[in-house]
Design goal:
Elements (H helix, E strand, L loop, with lengths): L1 H32 L2 E2 L1 H8 L3 H9 L5 E3 L2 E5 H10 L3
Amino acid sequence: MNVDITNRNAEIEKLIVNTINKALQAVHHQFIESGWMSLKDGAKYAGVSYNTFIKFRVMGLKVCEVDGVKRVSRKEIDSFLERHSF
């Protein structure tokens, strides 16, 4: 009997974890498609490390900051990379 309960609990836990992961991925995808993302996500989008992305700010990458929350637009990243391409 205990084995059945343990297996059922494991199945329920797995279902909950999978559901939460799917929901988080959907929200993350929706947020990135909105055009604005965190600096960490911006670095991933640009394909560079976070430290390199911070250097991009020094080089002129525009970042929006409201009440200490920093966001960067996908369009700004694309434009910045285009301006610095050769």
